[in-house]
Amino acid sequence: RASLCYKLGLASKLKYAGDNEINRGTLSMSRKRLILKIHEVDWGVNASLLPRWTLQTLKRKTELNPQKTFVVIDNMVHDVTNFLCEHPGGKKVLEPYRYGKDATGAFNGGIYNHTNAARAKSIEMRVARIVTRT
């Protein structure tokens, strides 16, 4: 296991790393590359930065914008207007939830337990978060 530099007399008193140290170094470099890739991905707006709406605010926004379809999932308001025709179950599945009825149960398995891809897509549609008071 002697290095070429040691064999050529260019290095002496070399210390050898064990498998654990090598694995730790390999994983550390992989982690650094992964962190760089994570920063290249659009993760959507941070939920804490979204406007805070009460259910009354949501109702008012829906009345003022009847062409919009807002759906609440996990206390997040999603504007699914442009997604209605793309939804695999069709817009008929989303329509009953458009006026502030909570779709969390349906989204998380009541009708269909959505995939990670669907969850990632929903993050892109978040426009507000539901609070009991502003």
Task: Give a quick precis of the structure.
The chain has 134 residues and is α/β, with parallel strands linked by helices. The chain contains six helices and five strands. It has helices spanning 4-7, 19-38, 55-64, 91-94, 104-107, 116-123; strands spanning 52-53, 70-73, 76-79, 99-102, 126-130.
Structural write-up:
The chain has helices at residues 4-7, 19-38, 55-64, 91-94, 104-107, 116-123; strands spanning 52-53, 70-73, 76-79, 99-102, 126-130. Helix content is 37%, strand content 14%. It contains 6 helices and 5 strands; from the N terminus they run ααβαββαβααβ. A hairpin with a 2-residue loop joins strand 2 and strand 3. The chain has a 5-stranded mixed beta sheet. The model has no long low-confidence stretch (mean pLDDT 85). By secondary structure, it is α/β, with parallel strands linked by helices.
